[in-house]
Amino acid sequence: MARSDNSPTRVTKTLAGSDRAHNASSNQPGKPAVLIRRARLEDEPHIREFTRNTFEWGDYVADAFPEWLENGYDVYVAEVDGIPVGVTCVAYYAEDEAWFQGIRVKQEMRRMGIASKLTEASIAAARERGVRLCRAHIDADNYKSQGLATTMGFHKAATIAEFTVRVAGNVSAVPDGSAHEA
Fold first, then answer.
1. In the chain, domain spans
2. CA neighbor of 103 nearest in space, from 127, 56, 137
């Protein structure tokens, strides 16, 4: 069913013991050899190039990438013939939780198992840190990412309503919780 808003969907995956195998082998006919490795700052120009038109408004990933590295998050790139063609980040905001964010694959390299390989690497990294729960927010109309999450063992945990307000002038909150123009 189509939704008229872009409310994110929260998906989760519980990590316990060994996970079922997610084998997206690069040795399959028609699929390139893919190397998943830790990201480096020098990957940024490639990431900036393949993420600049992800959405109508652009993308935040290239700007966030250096910060992800500085913060010590697990950041991975998928490399084909020595060139980064995919990226993802695993952030740790709580000791036993991981947040998967910013998974991107160069448009002409999609549908080749690269996002699955990046997700497998992310799950393995989270498991190595002792994480028990992995989470991600996915736009409600991003059916491809929702499909990937489901395939990788995530389940829908919530639909989140996002509220915004445009503020003109000086607005202040008053004790009863209402707002008025100052």
1. 8-181
2. 137
Domain spanning 8-181: CATH superfamily: Gcn5-related N-acetyltransferase (GNAT) (3.40.630.30)
Task: Give the model confidence (pLDDT) of 30-77 as tens digits.
Answer: 778 999 999 999 999 999 999 988 887 878 899 999 999 999 999 999
Sign of CA dihedral 23, 25, 30, 33: positive
How far apart, in Å, are the Cα atoms of 75 and each of 66, 102, 114, 123?
10, 10, 15, 12
Give 146 or 174, the one with higher predicted confidence.
Answer: 146
Beta partners for residue 76, in sequence order: 38, 88
Written as six digits, the tokens of 109 are 């390299």
pTM: 0.74
Between 8-12, 55-59, 70-74, 131-135, the lowest mean confidence (pLDDT) is in: 8-12
* Cα separation, 116 vs 123, whole angstroms: 10
Q: Residue 133 burial (CB < 10 Å; 0-12/13-18/19+)? A: middle
What whole-number distance in Å separates Cα of residue 96 and Cα of residue 155?
18
The closest of 160, 164, 162, 161 to 10, measured between CA atoms, is 160
Q: What is the mean pLDDT of residues 85-98?
A: 93
**Lookup: tokens for 37:** 């490795």
